[in-house]
Amino acid sequence: MSRNTLRIVILLAAISIIGISVTQVYWFRKAFDLRANQFNRDVTTSLNNVALKLIEFNRGTIPSSSLVSQVSTNYFVVLVNGPIDAALLDFLLTTEFQKRGIAHYEYGIYDCVDKCMRGGNYITPATTVQKTTFPETPRLNNDGYYFAVQFPMVEANILSQMGIWGFSSIVMLVVILFFVYSLFVILKQKRLSEVQNDFINNMTHEFKTPISTIAISSQVLKDPSIVSQPDRLLNYASLIETENNRLREQVDRVLQMAQLEKKDLGLNKTYCQIHELIQEAAIHNTVALEAKGGAIEIHANAKHSTVFGDKLHLSNVINNLIDNAIKYNHRPPRVAITTADSPAGLRIQVTDNGIGIPVDEQKRIFERFYRVPTGNIHDVKGFGLGLHYVKTVIEHHRGSIAVESKPGAGSTFSILIPLN
């Protein structure tokens, strides 16, 4: 799938999800409003019935005006032309509200003597709590007889009656989360596919060059007359040996990648001297450094430099960092390796004067196959496995690695390895 096609698919899918979400929210709100209106009608009807029964009990006259007033969303006031018996009111409210499935309410009775609201009961489906005071709520400018009912959990009551809408909203949320996750997986797989394609192209190029060189050299060596030219014979034999070693190194890198994929490095841990490994790595890279007019400095400041680890893999770590310092450099390489004691273990710093790494790329350089983009310039060979391998080895030694770098100002890789 091409990049433009993928973008169109993602855009259309996102528009569809947004459209469905907006529609769901709209109809959910409409359903909520309908339920709220139904709730208000049920409450008004119930309170009106309670008021009529109280008036009938008091043998009063029914006023021409409305008995029930909705002061706010969850607060209702009921006028009664006569004294209100608290026990009777409690019974009537419970009876009427139970008929319509209304729960979680509290009521208060207006005291005409003290001119204040007296608390009644707080009613829930499971309990009844006696209250002596009523919450601070609006009062009528009326000295007559009335009582007030408040619903502290009115929205919860309404939502509890919207079972199918709640279920559909949860399903919709799951669909959106699944879509986002699927999108993340698709993009990740596409990025991995692109990186793997780059890896295959790089690997093909890395194998093709030495194979071609060996093939040409072999053709030359088949010429019987070359026996009389020992210098030329030695030159081509050395060339075949060099390219063969190069092929072996590439194969070793691919095998390392397979080990990293299985997360099984097969570490053979022994006590090893880091300073000795650094010296060996410096000697190993001397030819490559001198070829570019570079040099390496070693500052062995650590007093405790013996660690319990795999000598081969730790040597590869140091060699990889030195090799990168040489390859990614447009000037004569200057590499400095410094060791120091740390409360957490042994610290190793490899500093170079290379091209540096942009800040936004630094968090990705340890990813498998990842190589810092260089535009159309492909003058540095590699598979994008070196730093991933370095990080994996260090983590298998319970250590850590970090990088500090600025473009054009070189890089410093800091490794911390526990001594025990």
End-to-end CA span: 50 Å
- Lateral strand order in the biggest sheet: 1-2-6-3-4-5
Structural category: alpha+beta
Helix content: 40-55%
Q: What is the assembly state of the chains in this entry? A: single chain
Please provide a written account of the structure.
Helix 1 crosses helix 2. This protein is of the alpha+beta class and 420 residues long. The chain folds into three domains: 3-160; 191-262, Orthogonal Bundle (Helix Hairpins); 269-417, Histidine kinase-like ATPase, C-terminal domain (Heat Shock Protein 90), CATH 3.30.565. It has helices spanning 3-58, 86-99, 154-160, 163-221, 230-262, 274-284, 286-291, 311-327, 359-362, 386-396, and strands at residues 68-72, 75-79, 105-111, 116-123, 128-130, 146-150, 269-273, 295-300, 306-310, 334-342, 345-351, 400-405, 411-417. Helices cover 52% and strands 19% of the residues. The two termini are 50 Å apart. The strands form three sheets. The chain has a six-stranded antiparallel beta sheet with strand order 1-2-6-3-4-5.
Spell out the blueprint of helices and strands.
Layout: H1 3-58, E1 68-72, E2 75-79, H2 86-99, E3 105-111, E4 116-123, E5 128-130, E6 146-150, H3 154-160, H4 163-221, H5 230-262, E7 269-273, H6 274-284, H7 286-291, E8 295-300, E9 306-310, H8 311-327, E10 334-342, E11 345-351, H9 359-362, H10 386-396, E12 400-405, E13 411-417
Parallel strand pairs: 8-10
Antiparallel strand pairs: 1-2, 2-6, 3-4, 3-6, 4-5, 7-9, 10-11, 11-13, 12-13
